[in-house]
Amino acid sequence: MNKSEKWIENGIEMLVEEFGETTVKKAIEAVKRFQVEIPGWALGTFGGGRFGGYIYPGAARGIEEKLDDAAFIYKLTGVTKRFATHMLWDFSNDGMVADYEIARKVAREAKDRGIELGAVNPSYFLKGSHMGSFTAPDVSTQERYIEQTILAGKIAKDFCNGLVTLWFPDGSMYPGQIELQKAYERMKSCLIKSYEKMPQDITILIEYKVFEPGTYSTTIPDWGTSFALAKGLGKNVGVLVDLGHHHHGTNIEQIVMILISENMKGGFHFNTRYAADDDHSVEPNPEMARIFYQLVRGDVVVNPVSNKNWAYMIDQCGGRENRIQALLHSVDSLQLSLAKAMLVQKEKLACYQDADEIILANRFFNDAIINADVRPVVAKARIELGVPVDPVMAFVESGYQKKIEKERQS
Ligand code: AFD
Ligand code: MN
Ligand code: MN
């Protein structure tokens, strides 16, 4: 979107006409304040998938190059200063155990590039996890993952932003393969054993997923399970919502509202799901805008009291697309979705709701959530942030892709 200043000003004028100057100004301010983490794993060689190990040209070959790419993305967006890590991909020499000193070094490398480490993801997969991690029948396997989880808490507190996000691929492929209750109870007891030894002043978010890799059962399949486990551990434990992790048709914005109403800590792994858990780039679709409306209404996004805010991360990794373009596209889509949510004039909407004007309420809501062209709002916010108006096109024109392809001949 190489739009001129005139196009931006005209667009803002149109929105002010419809939504009022105060509302539009608040939307611009919100977009300037919204921060989201970049997933380190989206920048590496991981993810060749079914295309014969296809690796996109210029893929980062190690953590330093991932951090280089993340620093360049931050330069183009101004809102992605934090880089989410995976313990066994980013802090390990053998893919089995993570190393505190490697984490210290990576944190320093990040700081040297003007960015920071964000969420720490223990890796409950890779070698030795084929019978599960916390739910593995073999106690020494459980213990290895408990140790990793405790270390993740220490690394998160000492070198990152004090956030640990837990996703477990534990589950089963067939009915009868495992005892579902045994798996759940092992999960619970290993979570307690880990939690007791983790710093109490960090935030822990438990992610759920309806299926994959388990296609018959996943030990933590839905928000209710994450909620119950989090409740059982402590106030600093919450629920991580990953868009791709739901059955089709799930009303995700309603889950968000319930978590907020129940004062449960929360966070997002943003992506778009078309077929299943596809880890696609975020799209500025109506669902994403409705989710942001609940986050704005719940005051858990761009809240000036920062510890009231949920944790926001992108979680995507498409095998075929240019990964840096894909991440910039996601940031753009999230900013558009937030801007739309900010345009909903709640007082006026309440009048339609109180009068039981069903269609008028829906149309009024959708004028902000679907019909408004908020690109001028996001463009204005970027001008005020001093970053390119169109980060994707700025990347295309920057020559960075050519540079990394040349330097990173694998
Ligand atoms: C996979 C899982 C889950 C997890 C992510 C990073 O489905 O979303 O958060 O990997 O570990 O996408
Ligand atoms: Mn995720
Ligand atoms: Mn996922």
CATH topology: TIM Barrel
Number of separate strands: 10
- Give the mean pLDDT: 96
Helix content: 40-55%
* Beta-strand residue fraction: 5-15%
Give the bound compounds: alpha-D-allopyranose, manganese (II) ion
Q: CA-to-CA gap between the ends?
A: 33 Å
Shape: globular
Rg from alpha-carbon coordinates: 22 Å
Q: Give me the strand/helix succession.
A: HHEHEHHEHEEHEEHEHEHEHHHHHH
Report on the biggest sheet: 5 strands, parallel
Write the layout of secondary structure elements.
Elements: H1 5-19, H2 21-33, E1 38-39, H3 63-77, E2 82-86, H4 87-90, H5 100-112, E3 116-121, H6 139-159, E4 163-166, E5 171-172, H7 180-196, E6 203-207, E7 217-218, H8 223-233, E8 237-242, H9 252-261, E9 266-270, H10 286-297, E10 311-314, H11 323-342, H12 346-354, H13 358-371, H14 375-385, H15 391-398, H16 400-407
Parallel strand pairs: 1-2, 2-3, 4-6, 6-8, 8-9, 9-10
Antiparallel strand pairs: 5-7
Describe this structure in words.
The chain is built from 16 helices and ten strands. The protein has 410 residues and is of the alpha/beta class. The chain has one domain: Divalent-metal-dependent TIM barrel enzymes (TIM Barrel, Alpha-Beta Barrel), CATH 3.20.20. The protein has a five-stranded parallel sheet with strand order 4-6-8-9-10. Strands 1-2-3 form a three-stranded parallel sheet. Helix 9 links the parallel strand 8 and strand 9 (266-270). The radius of gyration is 22 Å and the shape is globular. The two termini are 33 Å apart. Bound molecules: alpha-D-allopyranose and manganese (II) ion (2 copies).
